[in-house]
Amino acid sequence: MRTTREARPEGCYDPNDAEHPDTVMTLGRDICGNWNESLSREWLVTNGLGGYACGTLSGANTRRYHGFLTASFKPPVERTLLVSKVDMTIAYLDRAYPLFANEFVDNTIAPDGFIHVESFAVVDGIPVWRYAMADALLEQRIFMAPDANTSYLRLEVLRASATLKVGVKPLVTYRDYHSHSRGTRPFKAQAGKDRCRIEAFPGARPYTLALPGGSYEAADIWYWNFLHREELARGMDAIEDLWGPGSFTAEMSLGEVRYFTATAEASEPVAGDDVLTAIASKSQQLVSALPKSAPPWIRALAVASDQFIVRRDANVAAHVDTQKASTTVIAGYPWFTDWGRDTMIALPGLTLALGRFDTAASILRTFAGFVDRGMLPNRFPDAGEHLEYNTADATLWMFQAVSDYLDVHRDPDMLRDVLPVLVDIIHAHVEGTRYGIGVDPTDGLLHAGQTGMQLTWMDAKSGDHVFTPRIGKPVEINALWVNALEVTARLSAGLRSNAEERFCQDQLQRASAGFMRFWNASRGCLFDVIDVDGGAGCDDSIRPNQIFAVSLPHSVLSADHMRAVVDVCGRELLTSYGLRSLSARDLAYRGHYVGDTWQRDAAYHQGTVWSWLLGPYARAHFRVYGDRLLAKSFLTPMEQHLEAACIGSVSEIFDGDAPHTARGCFAQAWAVAEILRTWLYLDRQSVKSSKELNEQRA
Predict the structure, then answer these.
(1) Which domains does the chain have, with CATH numbers?
(2) What pLDDT sits at residue 26?
(3) How do 215-227 and 101-103 pair as beta strands?
């Protein structure tokens, strides 16, 4: 009897095929079959609306955010978890094989289905499991339909000598993705032959579960006290109760494919094979934008980049009139929405580096429409409240995003439309805007901040306590200000706006001279903040913010000063996965991002490593030393990281102390973007001669 398949359907790939460029890696039984190892590795798929599915390799949920279907009812917000888990059991050759796992509040682990996972891989951004049961091999893939709140679980029998009977038991809920469900709720299930329609309560959005070609048997069972260990470690409530609406069954023979679907859409889901083909095509398109020299891990980042680009529906803010859907960037999964700062920093790497100019233009136009009093919003709240404009740097990063866009793509309409916005921003900053943000006429530098507000990217706050207030004149704010003035002067000249060009040039000259005040001769680097709290004091903490004075295109520092800044950051802050937010020799340093909310917030910018900073550091290093291979080497540890946390993506932060455990969001937009962008930038640079390098290093 034949026991293996000889061919695979169009759009499906063998994750063990080394020729396929987008397979990040294949993890074997040593990882997948080990409880702690499989529990620490996560997967993520998204739908372009802000919705997603994610979980662990083991099948057990460790976070409140894990689930098979988290829908976005008002893209990209109003995220609602509908299907928490899909537990599957296989009956084969007179034996039952549970392929799932759960952990309960008493630390019971039942069952241990992860022991049957022979391999795990990510192909075209899709997680792929292979379960070995006796002589049978079953493949499972989980993915979402683009632009729809629909999740798919695809099963295919790759090897078998008899028929398999598949049992699928979904566990459901209906809750905000930041919360937990406890106790019973009045769920109702309208049964069909191979499906059921779930209504959580009157007025709730109904959703449908289906196993076409199978059968559905209704039930009404509550499952109690699931433990989410990551929430427990974070000092959060960690227990959940879930409802079981029944089970689905189907028989499968060798070579047969079946789909289990969960959808909150009113229409029937698109055929799973068609969705797979579309996903594969999109992934290949992203990879095709890379040079042939790009290694598999860079190709994986190119595929991962698409997870963060989402649609924003019209009229999402109470005081902004947007008449049509637009494009934005999710800052990180699983808990962030779209943030102005993160979007502007991530835009070049997520879009321009891959030739996605239309997407970049849509994002820039979207955010330009939200400028108010010369400021971009920092955050779009989940529930659609008024936008939060509490940021001194998001707006200034927009100038860099616009400049990068126009440098690589000729777009006269964008230049004409966006330049007045940039000019208005400059004038608003010169005149002064919210939260004490404005130009000091004595030195041309930007001051920012007021008590109780966190305005820079170092924005940790608990209640009314701001851990890194940085009130005064922060170094990266002023490096960005100098660059914003240069960009606006240059673009004004391009449109022959002579008056605005002269105004910006005058401000640029004054700010450039004033920036020299940041030089800290005693430490041979830049102060982090000068004129602290409006006084004459200076903060000489060794922080990574000074690296932007070298990595941004327009630097007013001398070659010696630029080299000194890079050297200090390398000596005091550099780790394999990014830069520490504070030197380990500082008395305020905290080497581990652990504990409850207060403890974690206290460490967030006091030594915690930030992966996105690896990009600016590598670019700054290349700028002063000219060795692209050496600069690239700072990025290569990320290849290993792509196998260690959220497979195929980059974590937000890491512990400051070795072994630099990954923490925070498991997939962060600006981290993926900056590493991808920097690798591509360095790959395009020519290698300087040995003589030039020796002269620079002397």
Answers:
(1) 26-280 (2.70.98), 289-697 (1.50.10.10)
(2) 86
(3) unpaired
Q: What are phi and psi of 668, to 5 degrees?
A: -120, 130
Mean pLDDT (the chain, rounded): 93
Q: What is the pLDDT of residue 698?
A: 46
DSSP at 587: T
Is there a contact between 303 and 283 (Cβ–Cβ < 8 Å)?
yes
Residue ranges of the chain whose pLDDT lies below 50 = 1-13, 15-16, 18-22, 316-322, 688-691, 697-698
Beta-ladder partners of 375:
372
Q: Find out whether 545 and 565 touch, Cβ atoms under 8 Å.
A: no
pLDDT value of residue 380: 80
Q: Which structure tokens are listed for 653?
A: 């932060």
Task: Give the pLDDT score at 318.
Answer: 37
Kindly list the distances between the CA atom of residue 190 and the CA atoms of 210, 219, 264, 304, 505, in Å, as whole numbers in the listed order: 12, 11, 14, 37, 68
Q: What is the pLDDT of residue 386?
A: 80
Task: Name the residue type at position 331.
Answer: A
Confirm if 392 and 474 have CB atoms less than 8 A apart: yes
Task: Look at residue 7 in the predicted model and tell me its pLDDT.
Answer: 44
Q: Which amino acid is at 66?
A: H
Nearest to 662 by CA among 610, 619, 622: 610
Q: Residue 46: phi, psi to the nearest 5?
A: -135, 170
Tokens at 349, concatenated: 């790497």
Pick from 273, 279, 277, 290: nearest CA to 21:
290
In 3D, which of 371, 274, 275 has the Cα closest to residue 320?
371
**CA atoms of 85 and 242, how far apart (whole Å):** 9
Distance separating alpha carbons of residues 360 and 330, to the nearest angstrom: 14
What is the pLDDT at residue 383? Answer: 65
Task: Return the structure tokens found at 302.
Answer: 């190119």
In angstroms, rounded to a whole number, what is the distance separating the alpha carbons of residues 547 and 618? 10
Sheet arrangement for strand 609-610: 574-575, 578-580, 609-610, 653-654, 662-663
CA distance readout (Å), 621 to 8, 128, 469, 559, 691 = 46, 38, 29, 12, 18
The whole-angstrom separation of Cα 662 and Cα 640 is: 12
pLDDT at 33: 96
31: alpha, beta or left? (left if phi > 0; alpha if psi -120 to 50) = alpha
Map residue 377 onto helix, strand or coil.
coil
Model-level pTM greater than 0.85?
A: yes
